[in-house]
């Protein structure tokens, strides 16, 4: 059975919370704004690639220690985890910021523009915070300071998770959220809930965008290996044609989306991005290979699509006299916002940003490794506006002209701080 993704969360149980944000937290965030922006500029000017975030991690660790927060370094290679115990007992909330930059050469003319270069997969490249993770680092450093200074208000424990390699570890290395979890980031003390945000270059400053349920896609890479039997191109009856089988399988895959997936629940995508096989015009080759990606937003649909792709590959190859295997590699799970948690925390988002500045958005087919935490504990991941007010267009993430307006950071600090307090202090 498919889950019904009702919009029941829109009727909110707001009674537990005041309608305006905590004035002391608001004032503290506003007083810290210039410092947060300064941190952001520094991190932006000194970006580091995935699993190589040594200096970034050192700056974070130094700051957390200065606040009296218990710090563990070298978690999942370059990750930093801080534990802040509130003055009162209670639950454990984790706040996550990803800290890595990308092999992109910055084309902006900012005073804090990155001039950093590095070697990536054997090639010299510029390095840039072209996904905005510099803002995530600065926002969480600011949030840590505010919460540390308000320990007396906290019923429970806050874990600050500064995570490397969200963009993916270099080939042959482990990294990111999956490795943090493997190394026990959600244990001791055991995390009850996790919050995370992503700055967005095309959402106006001051706006929060969110979606309950599947928010960003599970990303799978797949490889289909088709085995035929080689023969002369003029005598196909003498062999088994893997190219023809490849065509049947590609066609079959698209029927899984168009005929078998309930697209009213969520969209889904199968893309064959590479097809290879054969050597010349008059040889039917022995093998062919398909490589592609699957994007899903609903756990049941994900299972169905993967199962059916496996059956299609094996079954169709067999029907045409050959054989095939398919392998899937998971790059991210579904960034799935727990429905009850989203309902619980929506009033906080609204009172911090203002009712009119919290937008319900559609899912995206991009992926986020925050999803791995959400497979373990209920989590909420939302988007924070980073586009200069008045602009209607923005350069996309991962491009050399990508820009985030500093004015977007303050709302991030306020929201992360208030989410933490409201979650931990809920009756
Ligand atoms: Zn990115
Ligand atoms: Zn990102």
From TrEMBL:
It comes from the Bacteria. The keyword tRNA-binding does not apply. Mn(2+) binds at residues 131, 133, 167, 198, 398. The keyword Kinase does not apply. GO terms for biological process: diaminopimelate biosynthetic process. The Mn(2+) ion enhances activity. One of its GO terms (molecular function) is metal ion binding. Keywords: Hydrolase, Manganese, Metal-binding, Signal. Its cofactor is Mn(2+). Residues 222-318 form the Peptidase M20 dimerisation domain. SUPFAM superfamilies: Bacterial exopeptidase dimerisation domain, Zn-dependent exopeptidases. NCBIfam families: amidohydrolases. This is Amidohydrolase.
């Amino acid at each position: 059975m498919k889950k019904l993704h009702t919009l029941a969360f829109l009727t909110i149980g707001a009674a537990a919370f005041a309608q305006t944000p905590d004035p002391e937290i608001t004032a503290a965030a506003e007083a810290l704004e210039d410092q947060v922006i300064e941190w952001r500029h520094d991190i932006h000017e000194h970006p580091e690639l995935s699993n190589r975030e040594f200096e970034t991690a050192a700056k974070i660790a130094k700051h957390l220690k200065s606040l009296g927060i218990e710090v563990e370094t070298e978690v999942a290679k370059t990750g930093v985890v801080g534990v802040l115990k509130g003055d009162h007992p209670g639950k454990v909330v984790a706040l996550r910021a990803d800290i890595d930059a990308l092999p992109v050469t910055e084309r902006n003319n900012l005073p804090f523009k990155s001039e950093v270069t590095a070697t990536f997969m054997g090639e010299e490249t510029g390095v840039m915070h072209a996904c905005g993770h510099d803002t995530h680092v600065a926002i969480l450093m600011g949030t840590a300071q505010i919460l540390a200074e308000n320990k007396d208000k906290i019923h429970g424990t806050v874990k600050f998770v500064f995570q490397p390699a969200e963009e993916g570890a270099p080939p042959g290395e482990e990294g990111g959220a999956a490795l943090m979890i493997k190394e026990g980031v959600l244990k001791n003390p055991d995390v009850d809930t996790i919050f995370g945000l992503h700055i967005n270059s095309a959402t106006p400053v001051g706006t929060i965008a969110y979606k309950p349920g599947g928010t960003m896609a599970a990303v799978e890479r797949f490889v289909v290996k088709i085995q035929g039997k080689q023969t002369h191109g003029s005598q196909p009856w003498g062999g088994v044609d893997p190219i023809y089988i490849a065509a049947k399988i590609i066609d079959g895959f698209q029927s899984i989306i168009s005929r078998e997936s309930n697209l009213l629940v969520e969209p889904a995508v199968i893309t064959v991005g590479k097809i290879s096989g054969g050597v010349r015009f008059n040889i039917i080759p022995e093998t062919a290979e398909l490589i592609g990606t699957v994007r899903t937003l609903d756990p049941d649909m994900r299972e169905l699509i993967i199962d059916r792709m496996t059956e299609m590959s094996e079954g169709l190859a067999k029907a045409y006299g050959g054989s095939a295997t398919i392998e899937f590699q998971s790059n991210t799970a579904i960034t799935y916002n727990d429905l009850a948690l989203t309902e619980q925390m929506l009033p906080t988002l609204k009172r911090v940003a203002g009712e009119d500045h919290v937008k319900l958005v559609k899912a995206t087919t991009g992926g986020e490794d925050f999803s791995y935490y959400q497979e373990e504990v209920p989590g909420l991941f939302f988007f924070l506006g980073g586009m200069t007010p008045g602009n209607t267009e923005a350069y996309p993430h991962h491009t050399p002209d990508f820009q985030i307006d500093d004015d977007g950071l303050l709302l991030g600090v306020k929201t992360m701080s208030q989410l933490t307090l409201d979650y931990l202090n809920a009756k």
